[in-house]
Amino acid sequence: MSPADWQATALSLKLAALSTGLLVLIALPLAWWLSQSRRRWPRLIEALSLLPLILPPTVLGYYLLLAFHPQGFLGGLAFSFEGLVIGSMIYSLPFALLPLRQSFSAISRDLLEAAACLGASPLARFWHIGLPLARPGILAAISLCFAHTLGEFGVVLMLGGSIPGETRVLSIALYEHVEAMEYASAHLLAGILALSTWLLSLPLLRRPSV
Amino acid sequence: MSLVFRQCLQRGAFNLDAEGRFPPGVNAIFGESGSGKSSLLRALAGLEAGRGQIQHLGRDLQSLPSHRRGLGLLTQRAALLPHLNVGENLKLAHRLGPAGLNPAQIEDLIKQLDLCALIERRPLQLSGGEQQRVALARCLIGGARLLLLDEPCSGLDHASHERFLKHLSACTHKLGLTVLLVTHHLWEAARTADHACLMQNGKLGAIQPINQLLCSADLATRRDAMACLQLPVLGFDHSDHILSLELGRQVLQVACGEPGEREQRVLIPAASVSLSPLPPQHSSALNRIETQFLSAYPSAPGELTAVLRTGDHALLARITARSLRQLNLASGDRLYAQIKATALH
């Protein structure tokens, strides 16, 4: 593998780890709130947060590019690693939110009500019941987000281009190898991507322990 | 009074408007399904948005969220945390509760509820009865002084049910709790409750001593009608396993496997009491209690429940309309109630 490919691999891993970590931290309280709220308007927020699931990545990337443009809403983040992290988080939000939301919703209301009567505040219920019982969902969210970020292409291309060490991630490097008809290198990167995403899917096969 | 409340709640066509004043001890609430018993308990616990006021031991609960009300709610689902073992469940409840018991009290509670052997087990490894006992301990360990029990024993077999009630009575008296026990089993209330009231169409009836309500027209006409008496123990015959209780100036004999304490509660099913105007001779029934006939309520086609008085106590006897006619009973008549010692429990 060339030094440039090593650099792309390291950048991809860094991007996936950072955006997954930050995203799960944000999605945990959001998913808990959505699962506990009995009002209607949080449904609207939930529907909005699922938009990246149906929007074409290039469309999402385009709007993010407009927002991150120097004169945009979040100016100056286009074509930067930080911009990629934020873009990946938005792009992968449904992949974190859905499994977490589902795990939290599956927790029996009896458990939460009994705990409330025992003196558990909403925060204590999240900490002592929500988090431990949603462990399979948290694992699923982490592996889905990580795999999804590793393989993303459209958003990265629109938002980051291909700046070595800054925005040239594995999928972009793979695309460029194919463009240049360097099939051996392309095979290698495609193999790395395929193997690592498959490995990341293994936690999803775990049987629930409780 | 320990608990005074008025709670109003509207749910579709159902309207809860219940006012109650409950003393410390076990208070039973009887009612048909849909009469609003569970909604009332949920409103008291803050899980439904009931309007009104709630005072417990002079503390206003109405304005507080569930987790600050300092009460225990136990339904037929024990709702133990499945990822923690029994000991960890109890530890967490102790930490979260308003005023956790001290170590000596905890040890006492665990012994009292027979949980020593279960501490390391996960909730899914426990039987239904064991789960409910752990759930009861979990309510008490955090220092709750008000317990709301919503048919906690439905789904348990009879032995586990009896055992749970025995533990509940012991804990209630030891810790000075106020308990509201929602039930539709007469014997459950007769076994544990000191006072009881009826709930109908979202309204709560007047609270009465348990035997007074059991012998009222509302409950005496039920097929499982019974009286319950709390009587001083006179002695225990170890060879015959017969417990003697003081019933006014008479003695009530109960077939019983073990000697009781200073006082014993005894349940007298109306169906196991027969009546005779003359002192019965040569009968296998050990008890011939002199009583006064007060009145009779029709309870089924051709059947009546007779209300009797002996001293300060009321008893019930289920007889046929034909027997009543043949005995030609009038209010105030003296009668002998024959009660089998083996029918009492």
Count of DSSP E strands of chain A?
0
Oligomer: heterodimer
Beta-strand content estimate of chain B: 35-45%
Radius of gyration of chain B: 22 Å
Spell out the blueprint of helices and strands:
The complex is a heterodimer of chains A (210) and B (345).
Chain A: H1 3-36, H2 41-49, H3 51-54, H4 57-68, H5 81-105, H6 109-118, H7 122-133, H8 135-151, H9 154-160, H10 170-179, H11 183-201
Helix pairs in contact in A: 1-5, 1-8, 1-10, 4-9, 5-8, 5-9, 8-11, 10-11
Chain B: E1 3-11, E2 14-22, E3 25-31, H1 37-45, E4 51-56, E5 59-60, E6 71-74, H2 86-96, H3 103-112, H4 128-141, E7 146-150, H5 158-175, E8 178-183, H6 186-192, E9 195-200, E10 203-204, E11 208-209, H7 210-214, H8 217-220, E12 226-237, E13 242-247, E14 250-255, E15 263-269, E16 273-276, E17 287-300, E18 303-310, E19 313-320, H9 321-327, E20 334-339
Helix pairs in contact in B: 2-4, 4-5
Can you walk through the features of this model?
The complex is a heterodimer of chains A (210) and B (345). Chain A has 210 residues and is mainly α. Chain A has eleven helices and no strands. The radius of gyration of chain A is 19 Å and the shape is globular. In chain B, α2 runs parallel beside α4 and α4 packs parallel to α5. Chain B contains nine helices and 20 strands. In chain B, strands 3, 6, 7, 8, 9, 10 and 11 form a seven-stranded mixed beta sheet that branches. A five-stranded antiparallel beta sheet of chain B has the order 16-20-17-18-19. The two termini of chain B are 31 Å apart. Helices cover 25% and strands 37% of the residues of chain B. Chain B is of the alpha+beta class and 345 residues long. The interface between A and B is medium-sized, with 19 and 29 residues.
